[in-house]
Each structure stands twice: as structure tokens, then as C-alpha cells.
Specification:
With 267 residues, this protein is mainly β. It has two domains: 2-58, SH3 type barrels, CATH 2.30.30; 67-265, Fumarylacetoacetate hydrolase, domain 2 (Alpha-Beta Complex). 12% of the residues lie in helices and 39% in strands. The chain has helices at 75-80, 153-159, 163-167, 184-187, 213-223; strands spanning 2-7, 14-19, 30-34, 45-51, 56-58, 67-71, 90-94, 99-100, 106-108, 115-117, 119-125, 141-148, 151-152, 172-179, 191-196, 199-205, 231-233, 241-242, 248-253, 257-265. Strands 1, 2, 3, 4, 5, 6, 7, 8, 11, 12, 14 and 17 form a twelve-stranded mixed sheet that branches. Strands 9-20-19-15-16 form a five-stranded mixed sheet, with no helix packed on it. The longest helix is centred in the last third of the chain and has 11 residues, at 213-223. The protein is globular, with a radius of gyration of 18 Å.
């Protein structure tokens, strides 16, 4: 199931179930509206249906409290920066104010001269949880979406820590929707790729993560409580690189979809 948040006719964001051309059924490329917030409780179909082309998709989730990101979780990405793989998951936080949705602009701040894309698989948490053992990780996952961990590479090196370099408004695009019916075995081997202006930049598979999803959830919940709607970014493969105002960056993950955002100079 694909759960999206969308805006129609400049109204408030609503949730709906997305049906695409390849799905069985009679309503391709449309959204069936649902009532309520699926992360907060039971929902029901309202009977309304809109065409995907007639609405604007927004971030499928606004994290209730935080985005927990994982650094250097692909060995080849660590190597491209002459770094080593950490002996345990390397974590940092991105504020929920950094979240934007598909099609929304990534703002190029005046403080940087080296803004990078980082395509990633994102986990959406479905329940309050703390100290979750790896074997029960699936119990707390609501679904998966796509992320771009936008990074000011020069500020990351200058500051020696990552909160500013990765925390600007618009630095956490998420979308286009949340897929809820993927099992851990399926998510463990998905193709992930990034293009810049249509040109391939990243191409890898989630099977190359140093630390898999169960271990990441076990580790993150060992030190912080996760809330429904919180997001874990699972790290980026090799091939990250700069983007400039006027560029368009797309991250595609097999079985989920494509997240595309333009890059715009911040006023």
C-alpha cells in the first residue's frame, strides 16, 4: 500500500491511498482519500477519489519529533571520502523543519559553495518504541519512503560536526509516498539510484548497507525513544556529488518510486 499526503485546490493536506498503472484495479494513477492520520489510528475510505495529476504531493510524513540519520553506512561511500566504516552505527539528527516533499525546492544557502545530494532509503516509525531488539524491528516499522540527505560538504568539514551542514530548512526531502507492504527481506535488497539533471550519479543496492535495518532500529532505540512518524535515514551509497541552483535531483528506489526536487538559490 502507498500512503501519500496531498493538497488539492490549495486546501489542507490530506492522506490517501495511491493506485498506479501497474496495480490491479480500475483506478490507475489516482488517490483514494482516507479520513484521519494513518500514523495516529484507524482510518477509513471517504469515497472520494482524485487523479494524481490534479493534486500536489507533499511530504508523506512530518516527523513528530526527529529525523535520525545514519552516516557512513555504505563502505564505498566512506571510502570515497577516505574514511573508514564505523565500528557501530554513526548517528546524527536532522530537525523536522528540514523536511520538504516531492517537487518542493531544495534551497541553496549563501553560506555554502559545495551542496551535495545523498539518496537514501528512509524508515518511517509506526509506534512509540524504546530498546527494540533487532528480531522485533519489523513490529515498529510503519513503512518506507525515499530521502535526500542534503549536505553542505564544506560546512561539514569546517564545523567538525554535522548539525548545521545537514540541518538547513529544505535539507530533508521525503517522498513521494510511504510504502507499507514491504517486508524486511525485500527491503534488504532494493536497487537505489540518484540522477542529476537526468544523468546517473549513484547506483547501488540496499544489500550493501554495513548495518541492516534491524540493527539500526536496535541501536537508535537504545538511546532515544522513537515516536510514530519519526524517520530513520539509513545512509547513502557512493557517488554523492555537488548540485547547483537550476539543477534537478531524483532519487529512485526499487519498489517505492522516485523523489524529485529542484535546486533553487535561497533569497
Amino acid at each position: 500500500m502507498r500512503i501519500a499526503r496531498y493538497v488539492a485546490d490549495d486546501g489542507d493536506p490530506r492522506y490517501g491511498i495511491v493506485e498506479l498503472e501497474q496495480d490491479a484495479g480500475g483506478h490507475p494513477d489516482s488517490i483514494a482519500a482516507i479520513s484521519g492520520d494513518p500514523l495516529a489510528g484507524a482510518v477509513n475510505y471517504t469515497g472520494e477519489r482524485v487523479a494524481l495529476d490534479d493534486v500536489r504531493l507533499v511530504s508523506p510524513v512530518i516527523p513528530r519529533s526527529k529525523v535520525v540519520a545514519i552516516g557512513k553506512n555504505y563502505a564505498a561511500h566512506a571510502a570515497e571520502f577516505n574514511s573508514t566504516v564505523p565500528t557501530e552505527p554513526l548517528t546524527f539528527l536532522k530537525p523536522n523543519t528540514s523536511v520538504i516533499g516531492p517537487g518542493e525546492p531544495i534551497l541553496y544557502p549563501p553560506e555554502t559553495e559545495n551542496l551535495h545530494f545523498e539518496g537514501e532509503l528512509a524508515i518511517v516509525i509506526g509506534r512509540i518504541c524504546r530498546r527494540v531488539p533487532a528480531e522485533r524491528a519489523a513490529d515498529v516499522i510503519f513503512g518506507y519512503t525515499i530521502a535526500n540527505d542534503v549536505t553542505c560538504r564544506d560546512l561539514q568539514a569546517k564545523d567538525k560536526q554535522w548539525s548545521r551542514a545537514k540541518g538547513y530548512d529544505s535539507f530533508c526531502p521525503l517522498g513521494p509516498w510511504i510504502v507499507t507492504n514491504l517486508g524486511l527481506d525485500e527491503v534488504a535488497d532494493l536497487e537505489i539510484s540518484t540522477t542529476l539533471n537526468g544523468e546517473p550519479r549513484q547506483s547501488s543496492t540496499t544489500s550493501l548497507m554495513v548495518y541492516g535495518i534491524p540493527r539500526l532500529i536496535e541501536f537508535v532505540t537504545s538511546f532515544t525513544t522513537l515516536l510514530p512518524g519519526d524517520v530513520i535515514l539509513t545512509g547513502t551509497p557512493e557517488g554523492v556529488g555537488p548540485m547547483l541552483p537550476g539543477d534537478s535531483v531524483s532519487v529512485t528506489i526499487e519498489g517505492i518510486g522516485t523523489l524529485t526536487n529542484p535546486v533553487v538559490a535561497e533569497d
